[in-house]
Design brief:
Low-confidence stretches: none
Largest sheet: 9 strands, mixed
Pfam families: ACP_syn_III, ACP_syn_III_C
Keywords: Acyltransferase, Transferase
Protein name: Ketoacyl-ACP synthase III family protein
Number of strands: 11
Mean pLDDT: 96
CATH class of the domain at 7-174: Alpha Beta
Organism: Actinomadura graeca
InterPro entries: ACP_syn_III_C (IPR013747), ACP_syn_III_N (IPR013751), Thiolase-like (IPR016039)
CATH superfamily of the domain at 7-174: Thiolase/Chalcone synthase
Radius of gyration: 19 Å
């Protein structure tokens, strides 16, 4: 989806601590073999800080940087992948109340780890709809330090990390221009993360821990035994299609992309699912940063872009590709153009 006149005015992330992967191995939380294969150094953790409070802190920082007053924000779009608080409660209105505190629509957007891309798409449409408001607040936040999650073993592709992130999307100004946001789904692959698990009652209501591994192993076993045909599509295929759409819409080639901001997966996962399919090397990736923080679901691309911009890894005129994926399966991508260098001192906003 080609985007016109939409900018990233502000960006922010919440404070978290880093937990060394070696400590997790020593404590028996994480396998030494997985550490060697994944090559992670540490992951971000938030202790008992509620996920919505991570989003609030990030949002106030993005608002302080973005320059738009609260009265100019026409909507709040919040995205997450893990429960945010009390059942029946609205995290997005809590975030609104503790940031702009305005009587504007506040919606939760759920699309797994590509929720931020979905928020970009919907917010861009909102800004182009004729609304009088020149900006939208996008927030993300998850804290996986809960009894229903074993962050170290929930999935063999990554270690789950806690984080909060936010972007102020504007149709008037910004440090970067949003050129395109695209997504490609392969809905027939939803079975990979369902396996033999019944749909009712939902597993989280039974007190079971999140488990990405068992359903995938079940389906792979069915395929290996000949009981199921192999899937004709895989994640790499739809990732390539999504990024090709974005590159075309942004009128750039991969050679002209200065940096790829990707999920915070294990190194071997990134190599197989991102680097090799996209034809990029580690030098064009954010691996050196992502290996320090882990996979924070919807926040990966916000904090990756913020890090690259504030640390001077990208310059004015550079085009940056954001690429990610989620169960479903769906791959999403976006291209932004850097318009301004990061200020010498970024306002804290807290």
């Amino acid at each position: 989806m080609k985007i016109d006149n939409v900018y990233l005015a502000g960006i922010g992330t919440a404070d978290t601590e880093l937990l060394d992967v070696s400590e997790a191995v020593d404590r028996g939380w994480y396998d030494a073999e997985a550490r060697e294969r994944g090559a992670l150094v540490s992951v971000s953790v938030a202790g008992e800080t509620p996920a919505p409070d991570l989003a609030v802190q990030a949002a106030n920082r993005a608002l302080a940087l973005g320059g738009h007053s609260a009265d100019e924000i026409g909507a709040v779009f919040h995205t997450c992948v893990h429960p945010q608080g009390p059942d029946g409660w609205s995290a997005q209105h809590y975030i609104n109340h503790n940031t702009i505190d305005r009587p504007v629509t506040s919606a939760e957007i759920r699309n797994g780890c590509t929720g931020f891309f979905a928020s970009l798409q919907l917010a861009s449409c909102f800004l182009a709809s004729g609304t009088d408001s020149p900006a939208v607040l996008l927030t993300c936040g998850d804290n996986f330090s809960t009894p229903s999650i074993d962050r170290w073993r929930a999935c063999g592709l990554f270690v789950l990390a806690d984080a909060g992130g936010s972007v102020v999307l504007s149709r008037t100004r910004g440090f970067a221009r949003l050129l395109t946001v695209d997504a490609v789904a392969a809905p027939e692959l939803e079975i990979l993360h369902r396996g033999a698990t019944p749909l009712y009652p939902p597993t989280i209501t039974l007190g079971r821990q999140l488990d990405f591994n068992t359903p995938v192993e079940y389906i792979n076993g069915k395929v290996a035994s000949g009981e199921m045909p192999p899937q004709e599509t895989d994640f790499a295929t739809i990732l390539i299609e999504a990024t090709e759409q974005s590159l075309k819409n942004a009128d750039v080639t991969m050679d002209e992309i200065a940096l790829v901001v990707h999920d915070g997966f294990h190194y071997d996962t990134l190599r197989d699912l991102y680097f090799d399919p996209l034809g990029i090397g580690e030098e064009k990736s954010l691996w050196s940063f992502m290996r320090l923080v882990g996979h924070a679901g919807v926040v990966d691309h916000i904090r990756g872009l913020e890090h690259a911009w504030k640390e001077g890894l990208v310059s004015v005129g550079d085009r940056v590709l954001l690429a990610g994926g989620t169960p479903g399966m769906e791959a999403a991508s976006a291209v932004v153009e850097i318009l301004e260098p990061a200020p010498a001192q970024v306002p804290d906003g807290t």
